[in-house]
Amino acid sequence: MMKNIVLCGIGGQGTVLASKLIASAAMSKNIPVMSAETIGMAQRGGNVFSNLRMGEGVHSPMIAKGQADIILGFEPGETVRMLPFLKADGVVVTNKRAIMPTTATLSGFHYDADEMIDYLKTRVNKLHVIDGDEALKELGSSKVLNIVLLGAALRTKAIELSEEDIICSMEKMLKPEFMELNKKAIYYTK
Amino acid sequence: MHNEFMMGNQAIAMAAIAAGVNLVSGYPGTPSSEVLETVAKKRLDNCYVEWSVNEKSAMEVAAGAAYTGARTMVTMKQVGLNVASDPLMSLEYIGVKGGMVVLVADDPGPISSQTEQDTRTFAIYSKLPCFDPSSVEEAYQMVIDAFDYSEKYHTPVFLRPTTRVCHAYQSVLIRDEEEYHLNSIEGFVKDSKKWVIFPRLSNINHRLIEERNDELSTVFSSYSANKIINKDSQKLKAIAASGICYSYVLDVLEEIKTEEIAVLKVSTPFPFPYDLTRDFLKNHDEVLCFEELDPVIERALDHQCGIEGISCKVRGKLTKDSIRSGEYSIDLVREKIYNYLGLELKEDKASVNPPELPVRPPVLCAGCPHRASFYAVKQAMKGKKTIYCGDIGCYTLGNAMPLDMVDTCLCMGAGLGIAQGVNHIEPDTVCFAFVGDSTFFASAITGVVNAVYNQADMTLIVLDNSTTAMTGHQPHPGTGRTMMGDIVNKISIEAVLKGIGVEVVKTVDPLDYELAVDTVKEVANLPGVKAIIFKSPCIAIVKPNEPYKVCQGDCINCKRCINEIGCPAIFIDNGKVTIDNSLCTGCGLCSKICPVTAIRKAGEA
Question: What pLDDT shows up at residue B351?
């Protein structure tokens, strides 16, 4: 069955690794995968996205509007930005913490995370808001936001992969010394 | 054979290796850079690889190797092809002995380029055969085919993927090492009638090139990547597509399902496979074309209808049925196909009246030494009539507010020439040209020679961060590292400038703020061509220093640090100026600007 996944955030938040872990897990189950992501100039403080498409009948790596089964948002404003891609009954998993762009600091543009979350609540039935800051504090590392969010996404069952599938991919792609932390991170949310 | 999940550019590199490539040269440029980087990582011992100083050098190196019978590939982005076009235009008249693939990545949008030029059009102009892959998987096979055609017809050939193929990932069936082609190289055989270009030789070879391309048009008509799907569709409307647009068309048809519509896929836009397209045009009343950049397929089909008297209406960019600039999205293709077939497209309801979202334009990184360099020049030149001619690289981002230090930017190395031109007309303007270290070697040296020879009055600022930062930190002649893994003598920018005859060349650390400002004041006042090399490594290639913090007790909240330099590590938190210590690299520039020295190293606070 075809699954379209949008991951979005700000350059440096780890969207690309999360996307690669999902792709690798899907491939080891012989599910065809395609993906595309932002590369280059836009990475410097800009918003980034990954499109990931799994299953038969997928021809291009890009997801059309209204076709995403799940949006995995690393930043609430970016989640809102990608919302047009969500299916009518799609799932949204989003981090709560807003990241202020430099231009907003300069222009005095006010940007409020709560406003974003409130908007998402009015538009999305299957919304899961994750307190990433709290998670990272408890886990004692600023590097595992991507894995915490990915774990939460798996629990929604919108992606047909299990925590164990992702852990198998992690074992292939991460250094052994980071495994324990990342395993904790993937099971962090309930 | 085995399956691997890889980026398009990695697949292209692995295919070149599987095709027995012996030499790969190139110059970095998004979206092409990962091809050569992958070759460097995965190459066998029989393959030489280099980042050349620019695309022209890369093209000539690859041509020379191909003269010996070696299989070669040269990589660049579309604007790089402009730099390499001089050798390439002539090379087509001479031809090659070993297979030679010219990999040019096009950038519809453009997403990270100056132009939206189409290498397929360049193929028509230069008469080189051109292959245009529609997916990562297809790109892999096409590279192998391209080498075979190149070698068989003794011509360099283009492979022109676009961003969405270069940077897409897909599972690809790739060859194992024992299945790689092994190329036997004869060596260069002297024959001045063959290898020395003269008008008479060009006249003879031009005729042969035209005949060969006629033959290739026929050959490509049965090339497997050119095809018609749903050939027997009874519908009078059909679709033609190329590149990633073909994949978008398939996705949309997958969604519509009930519609069996004929689709022509053109993977060799030049020479155009007219024998394949003839019956397709005859069998339909109307063809809607989906192709990014120029209307290459549309023109060829329309042309065929005209000269062969076929009454099919070809629609696309020329008929304004599709957009004529910018990248095509799956959504655009979807909307156009639904309209074309008279189907109703359901509105998406998920996002109605979204709140205002912050714009996130790319900015210079926190701690980027370019910020300090620009700021020093800005402070030194306060109140003077100036022009700041920028160039291509991360430092183009110096144009953003509040720095606002890039008045012009044209193409690689152009800042020098622009500064000279302005100087000759407006002698009272203080003219600056800013150029990065990699761009300096690539295409600014001739500009300096021109300035010195022609007695211009200008200041060259070399922003030397010891890497090619924008495209992913490739080495260059000033770094002393090659793609073969050798450590070689670094070419000194200062020595080059002095050798040309620039008498005043100062090398300064831009993070030494007072010295940087004083140096600019002193040097800019001198007559003639003079240079300042601001030398400080890119923050991405060195370990950060201890971060700074704002001592809230001392801060008077004047926001000078924010309003003057626009560092992304400085922000307002609950009304107070704050430094994000995960972003701060400890460059200290903000501490030099603070009027009350409230910004100090975290340890001193």
Answer: 61
Within 8 A of A111 by CB-CB distance, chain B residues are 357-358
Do residues B298 and B272 lie in contact, with contact meaning Cβ atoms separated by under 8 Å? no
Q: Does domain B2-220 have CATH number 3.40.50.2020?
A: no
Which CATH fold topology does A3-186 show?
Pyruvate-ferredoxin Oxidoreductase; domain 3 (3.40.920)
pLDDT (tens digit, 9 = 90+) per residue, A16-33? 899 999 999 999 999 999
Residue A44 pLDDT grade (very low, low, confident, very high; cuts 50, 70, 90): low
Q: In sequence order, what are the beta bridge partners of A86?
A: A68
Same fold, B227-340 and B369-535: yes
Pairing of strands B548-550, B599-601: antiparallel
User: How is domain B369-535 classified at the CATH fold level?
Assistant: Rossmann fold (3.40.50)
Whose CA is closest to B160, among B175, B146, B174?
B146
Contacts of A9 in chain B (CB under 8 A): none
Size of interface A-B (CB pairs under 8 A): 159
**What is the mean pLDDT of the segment spanning A165-173?**
96
Bond preceding residue B402 cis, omega within 30 of 0: yes
A127 touching B (Cβ < 8 Å) = no
For residue B558, what is the enclosing H or E element? none
- Cβ(B101)–Cβ(B157) below 8 Å: yes
pLDDT at A42 > cutoff 60: no
Contact B437, B463 (CB under 8 A): yes
pLDDT at B136 over 90: yes
Pairing of strands A33-37, A47-54: antiparallel
Q: Which of the four pLDDT bands, split at 50, 70 and 90, describes residue A78?
A: very high
pLDDT, one tens digit per residue, over B210-234 is 999 999 999 999 999 999 999 999 9
| Pairing outcome for strands B286-290 and B313-315 | parallel
Domain positions in chain B: 2-220, 227-340, 369-535, 548-604
